[in-house]
Design a protein that fits this description.
Elements: H1 3-6, E1 10-14, H2 19-30, E2 36-41, E3 57-62, H3 68-74, E4 81-84, H4 90-95, H5 97-118, E5 123-129, H6 154-171, E6 176-182, E7 184-185, H7 199-208, E8 213-215, E9 222-226, H8 228-240, E10 251-253, E11 257-260, H9 261-277, E12 280-282, H10 286-293, H11 302-307, H12 315-326
Parallel strand pairs: 1-2, 1-4, 2-3, 4-5, 5-6, 6-10, 7-9, 8-12
Antiparallel strand pairs: 9-11
Helix pairs in contact: 2-8, 5-6, 7-9, 9-12
């Protein structure tokens, strides 16, 4: 994005109190990508940390996005970039269907319908999930954007419906959507979340702080992951791609890597030693494992590479970067 265009970008991030929202906000501010930034969540998000002294006009607001009145006051005609990060995570959405529908589906449609009337053609970046797919036919099958989603969870179904609606509104020229199907993101700092994949960060984060962590799935289970640094970089890049470059659908499988849980524990040992590894306690949870097993583990990212999205590094690199940024390493 050119500096001239950046100087006029009025951006909203929903769900900005979470780790990805905070990291995305920091990167947008540090890179000078926006002139005004509004961060919303069910609580007033923190002002994101940034290494840069230069700040855009930044506002942190508590907002109930299931309320039409709230959305009308938030999504005004001068907003020209929206990141829709809010949502009920996979495990929590499976446990509470009504809440998942209200937040992950009803609020998304409400926002998209409001935007197509008040901000026609506005750019909307929607982080979707690999959870929209069901398990592949074989473990070697690479899933493409053209494979039919068969979600194995309510969260996946809700994401799939929302991304389909945004894709159709983009086809019709009503909105300018960019739909990014994210891998499981690791390592997320902070506390465990309601996501079924929360353990993928927990088995690194807690042991590196000298705390115990529960591993609820088999060590042989495979998972498609990506570092938070690369995910944030790609979410920013998604907004900069000219819409003419998208080959029909706006849906893109973002780059990631396939690893086993055993691979992840090996990386933990490489970085944190036996002391960290011994803090991981195996305690199988059938509900969590069932959800995770419904996700594909190998995705074809040819479209993402063609568009210029960044690929991820190794697990050890991801852990080293996490330690450098957050200073958590057992001694």
């Amino acid at each position: 994005m050119s500096p001239q265009n950046r100087s006029r970008v009025n951006c909203i991030i929903t769900g900005a109190g979470g780790f990805i929202g905070q990291a995305l906000a920091s990167a947008l501010l540090e890179g000078g990508h926006v002139s005004k930034l509004t961060l919303t969540d069910v609580f007033a998000p923190d002002l994101p940390a940034t290494d840069s002294e230069a700040r855009a006009d930044t506002h942190c607001l508590k907002a109930d996005l299931t309320s039409l009145e709230t959305c009308q006051s938030l999504f005004t005609p001068d907003v020209n970039l929206i990141y829709l990060l809010h949502g009920i995570m996979s495990g929590a959405a499976e446990a509470n269907l009504e809440l998942g529908l209200k937040v992950n589906l009803d609020s998304m449609r409400q926002i998209l319908d409001l935007l197509r009337h008040t901000n026609p053609g506005v750019k909307v970046v929607f982080p979707s999930s690999l959870a929209v797919y069901g398990p592949p036919a074989t473990s070697a099958t690479k899933i493409t954007e053209l494979d039919a989603p068969v979600p194995g969870s309510s969260y996946g179904a809700q994401k799939h419906i929302s991304e389909t609606l945004l894709d159709d509104y983009s086809r019709r020229g009503l909105l300018d959507g960019r739909i990014c199907r994210l891998p499981t993101v690791t390592v997320r700092p902070g506390k465990p979340t309601g996501a079924a994949s929360s353990f993928a960060s927990g088995i690194f984060r807690e042991p590196l702080k000298g705390e115990k962590s529960i591993l609820p799935v088999s060590k042989d289970l495979e998972i498609w992951i990506c570092s938070s640094r690369t995910v944030v970089k790609n979410l920013i890049f998604a907004a900069d791609i000219p819409k003419e470059k998208y080959p029909g659908s706006r849906i893109v499988n973002l780059p990631g890597v396939t690893v086993t849980i055993r691979n992840m524990l090996d990386a933990l040992k490489d970085v944190g030693g036996d002391k960290a590894l011994q803090l991981v306690e195996e305690k199988r949870d059938e509900a969590t494992e069932k959800i995770v097993l419904s996700w594909p583990t190998r995705l074809d990212t040819s479209r993402a590479k063609m568009l210029g999205f960044a690929e991820d590094g190794t697990l050890v690199q991801t852990l080293q970067e996490y330690i450098e940024k957050y200073g958590a390493k057992i001694t």
